[in-house]
Each structure stands twice: as structure tokens, then as C-alpha cells.
Amino acid sequence: MSCPPRVKICCISSIEEAQLAIQHGASAVGLVSHMPSGPGVIADELIAEIAASVPLPVSTFLLTALCDADAIAGQHAVCRTSTIQLVDAVEPGELKRLRRALPQVKLVQVIHVRSEASVSDALEVSAYVDALLLDSGNPSLQIKELGGTGRVHDWQLSRQIREQSTIPVFLAGGLRASNVHEAVVAVQPFGLDLCSSVRVDGRLDAAKLDEFMRAVQRIV
User: Fold this and answer.
1) Would you say residue 2 lies in a domain?
2) Residue 5 lies in a domain
3) Of 80, 186, 179, 19, which is closest to residue 194 (Cα–Cα)?
4) What CA–CA distances, in Å, run from 79 to 63, 70, 71?
5) What distance, in Å, lies between the first and last C-alpha atoms of the chain?
6) Residue 184 is part of which domain span?
7) Looking at the 3D structure of the chain, how many domains does it have?
8) Phi, psi dihedrals of residue 201, rounded to the nearest 5°
9) If you write DSSP's letter for every residue of 136-198 in order, what string do you get?
10) Which site from 9, 39, 67, 100 is most exposed, i.e. has the minimal number of CB atoms within 10 Å?
11) Which residues of 6-16 are buried (b: 16+ CB within 10 A; e: fewer)?
């Protein structure tokens, strides 16, 4: 790769955590709204406060489990992030409506990579969004897993998606300093997304951030 992938630090819970991530080189921060499961959930009002504190050109991602365009647009009116990360499957018709409602906001669709079907799902939805984020959740469970699992998925399937996609691809799911080189070589993504591996007792940790970012910078 000519340059290391961009890094998005997710599950940001305060202005201080956002600043810490940015100081260590994050190009985006993820702000998690209500979810059926998983870490990092904060109130929409706090998401708005953190998003307003983040300087350009760092991107702010609202993670939402909503699937209705009007509901997502209403939530964004409170949170005011630069990007919306859709962690559950959203129908193409709703994506079109959302694009019309918020033309200035970037849309990132999460694909939970579980089988070959995930490849076709990703390519189909790529016509309606600005980027894909490949994660390791399981939306078919009674209580949906929509991110933050800390599990690695099949990177060869992610590689297939990245090779065929016409839009940028972020890789998520169990990334840490010890495996990020292997992950990037395998998938060659535009960006990386992580949460739990740079935290201690749920709090963003400067030493772990530094270790991860140094590992990313060593990738060529």
C-alpha cells in the first residue's frame, strides 16, 4: 500500500476521549446511539456535544440502529454529525429517501460479514451509500449484534468485497496492534475501525492507542 489506512476510533463517550483519539491520529470518531446490544452507547444530546467539539477535517460518525429514513433524519437533526453509520440493513428505498433528506451527510452502510451472501449484499447496497464498513456482528440473533463484538471475521470475504466495490471500504471486527498488519495486507481497506482493543476497563487508553497507531504506521 502506498500509505497506511485511515483510522476511525469508535465508542467515543466524551469530548476528552474524542480529543485523545484525534491527538493520536484518528481521522474519524464513532459515536454510538441506542443499540440492542454492544458497548459505547451514549445519549443523542451527548453525541451532538462531542460532534460539535471535533475540528475539521476529522469526521464524526453517528452509529444508528434505525432503519427508517425519517427516523434517521430526525435523529441526525439532534446529533449533527458529518456521517451516518447504518449498523443494520436499510432498504434501498429508505437509503434513497435518506440521501434526498440529507444530501450533505455521508452515508456508511455496515455489512456484517458472515458468508458469501455478504459479498452480494455489500455490492448491492454500494450503489446507495458513500462507503461500506465490514464488521463481525450477527443481526439474525434474537437480540441483534450490530457491532462492538471484538470478533474477527473471514478477511477473504472482506477482500472480495473490497476488490469489487466501487466505493471506499472500512474494515472492523477484532482489530488490534498484534493483527492489524495481517488484516491490512489481507484486505487492503481504505480505513480501519476499532473500539474495544484500545480501551482499558471501557475507557480509551493512550498507551493502547499509541501502540495501535504505531503498528498502522509501520504498514507499507
Assistant:
1) no
2) no
3) 179
4) 10, 14, 12
5) 5
6) 10-198
7) 1
8) 55, 40
9) --BTTSSS-B-S-------HHHHHHHHHH-SS-EEE-SS--TTTHHHHHHHH--SEEEESGGG
10) 100
11) bbbbbbbbeee
Residue 73 lies in a domain: yes
CATH at residue 190: 3.20.20.70
Cα–Cα dist 13/199, whole Å: 12
Could you tell me the three cell numbers for 18? 474524542
Secondary structure, 3-state, 97-118: HHHHHCCCCEEEEEEECCCCHH
Beta bridge partners, 132, equal 109, 169
Domain membership flag for residue 220: no
- pTM score over 0.85: yes
Measured distance CA(73)–CA(189) in Å, rounded: 28
C-alpha neighbours within 13 Å on the C-beta side of residue 145: 13
Is it true that the peptide bond before 57 is cis, omega within 30 degrees of 0?
yes
91's grid cell: 432498504
d(CA 25, CA 201): 22
- Residue appearing with cell numbers 476511525: 8
Q: What is the pLDDT along the chain (220 residues), one digit of tens a residue?
A: 568 899 999 999 999 999 999 999 999 999 999 987 777 899 999 999 999 999 999 999 999 999 999 999 999 999 999 999 999 899 999 999 999 999 999 999 999 887 788 888 899 999 999 999 998 665 666 666 556 656 776 889 999 999 999 999 999 988 999 999 999 999 999 999 999 899 999 999 999 999 999 999 988 6
